[in-house]
Design goal:
Alpha-Beta Plaits; Dna Ligase, domain 1
Amino acid sequence: MFACIFVPDFVLQASLWAEPEAERAELRKSPVVILDGPASVPRIIALNLAARSAGLELAMTKAQAETWANVSLRKRCEADEEKAQSALLECAAEFSPRVESTSPGTVIFDLTGTERLLGPPERVAVKIKVRVYKLGFDAQIALAANPDAALHAARGFSGITIIPAGREAARLGQLPLDVLPISQEMLDVLHSWGIHTFSTFAALEPVAITERLGQEGLHLQKLARGETSRPLRPLEVAADFVENFEFDDPVETLESLTFILNRLIQQLCTRLAEHSLATNELRLILELEVRQLRSEEDQEHYEHTWKLPFPVQDGKVLVRLVYLDLEAKTFSAPVRKLSVQVVPVKPQVVQGGLFTPPSPEAQQLEITLARIRGLVGTADAGGVNCAGSPQVFDSHKPDSFNLQAFSTNAESAEMLPAPVVVLRRFRPARETSVELSGQKPHFVAFRKRYLRVLSASGPWRSSGQWWDANTVWARQEWDVALKTAEGIGYYRLFFDEIGRRWFVEGVFD
């Protein structure tokens, strides 16, 4: 069996499909027409039932249509039609791996071998109808033993049509000839003979048809009889996970922006789930309505990329990350257009244990880090990230590290034995004054008191970046034992030879 999805008035439905669901329902109740053609004289190329009931007709000019009250005039958008066609192809791909994009608004797919998985044809047809309706289209569904019979039944009959094998000619016989892919010239010839339906055309002698209409007429007669058999031209569904939206009026509030972002991200996550995929990278591009740059800080667009340490399919997590970032941003102009893109990857499978308590969700960690970045910023004055996993630089400079994004793919390192002594660093190091006895520290000013040095080890000298005057460093380190009110405390001091200052770097535990 082959199934066909046909969307009547596809140009109109594709235009309405691009709107939010609530607005789409209201637009269907009111007269809506689609205009196309030269800018000087655009004409109606599609209209809904409410517009037809109001008296509007195809080929009317824009000026004529404007004489009707409460009529929504919309310009044809080929980008919306392409996105709607892609959505239909993805919908068909849920039922079969062999899908053909027959024409705009028409999709045919092979159901051979899916009986045990999907059930009998009647149940399959209902599932297809429900899925297409949830997608946002009012479509006609037909199942037949060959692709062309399914195509003509879907175009000619409303609702659901199922044609058993061998019953094609009888079931298609009542359809008018204009359902066939026939030229207007040949259609006029057949009408002049008194031929108006499939059944009357199929009853003619094939030899007489060939003599008068040639091979094209013979092929059309086979289509009317439902006797053709052809292979599908499968189309690989493009895995382009990008959603765009352009506002009619640029928006300035975060609520208006996140309302659309939530819908686009949820659509992307639904498509990822339909393809058994997830994402670990989200890219957002905002185009601003900047008519004239007043300063160098003004930008015409904003772009940000989130790289997650784990693949996700939950749109709520992605929406929350975007919201926390935009909440901390201030734009110099309203947003005119936005684009959201996700990078598809295979989902991560985690095997849980029967007796292992559930660990905190990794998604919550990423949201918590986003909140921390919103409070403390992404990087400090020195360019070091403020939140993440520590990464040690390839340098001998003490306390030289950066913070990078967390990753769940890091290889497990061998457990090292716990150190006997641990240095707890002060960040930042506390500046102090030191009294020397010869070359060694003798008294240290610490916590508003002068503490005597009982013992001192050092100095250990180190330096680096001598070739760059901005980052050169040199220091002397001392490990000292100080007599405090609580007892003996062990501390590390260092002398900054560039700034000629003493610091208490940390305490040994």
